[in-house]
Write a sequence for this structure.
């Protein structure tokens, strides 16, 4: 199989100065933090919610509505929804956090801006996290959220134009979700756009 990626894009001189500077800032901010596998996932998550480290504590939107859909194993999958009036489509957002950290409620200001600037209803899925819920729990929950939108977006939001995306682990899960929707439901073409930020693929 031919490598579809251009190796030249990965040369050091192909990285822009602003990207290099941002990377250096992130390394400087994140290096002193204890690893979650040392302090425990629950402690690392609680620390992030308190604003320990480089990230401030999350700001919760008063506009957010949470509803639950049934998961494959009988559990509830919460969906955090921030929607404008009369959405023109629905954006399925999958949060990052290395498949271990993060939450659907930890980036409300960004999700509000996304809803306001794009006119999309933003649906952020609270997928189950590792290590308590090993693979494929997280991808299963994201697939179920996507399938729910395929069936219910028009009734729930008045729009069935679907987009999907996320950052880091969220981008990885967004791609995995699209592949599952394609292979299991033959409906990947129902998602008309992706927003994938620095995902590991």
């Amino acid at each position: 199989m031919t490598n579809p990626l251009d190796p030249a894009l990965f040369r050091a001189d192909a990285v822009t100065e602003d990207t290099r500077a941002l990377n250096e800032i992130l390394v400087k901010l994140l290096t002193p933090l204890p690893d979650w596998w040392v302090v425990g996932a629950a402690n690392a998550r609680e620390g992030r919610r308190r604003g320990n480290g480089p990230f401030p504590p999350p700001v919760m939107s008063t506009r957010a509505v949470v509803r639950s859909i049934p998961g494959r194993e009988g559990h509830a999958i919460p969906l955090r929804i921030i929607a404008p009036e009369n959405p023109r489509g629905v954006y399925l957002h999958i949060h990052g956090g290395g498949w271990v950290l993060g939450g659907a409620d930890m980036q409300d200001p960004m999700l509000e801006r996304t809803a306001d600037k794009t006119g999309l209803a933003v649906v952020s899925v609270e997928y189950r996290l590792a290590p308590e819920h090993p693979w494929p729990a997280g991808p299963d929950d994201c697939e179920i959220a996507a399938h729910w939108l395929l069936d219910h977006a028009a009734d729930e939001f008045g729009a069935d134009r679907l987009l999907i995306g996320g950052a880091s682990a969220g981008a990885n899960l967004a791609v995995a979700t699209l592949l599952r929707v394609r292979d299991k439901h033959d409906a990947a073409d129902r998602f008309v756009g992706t927003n994938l930020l620095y995902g590991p693929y």
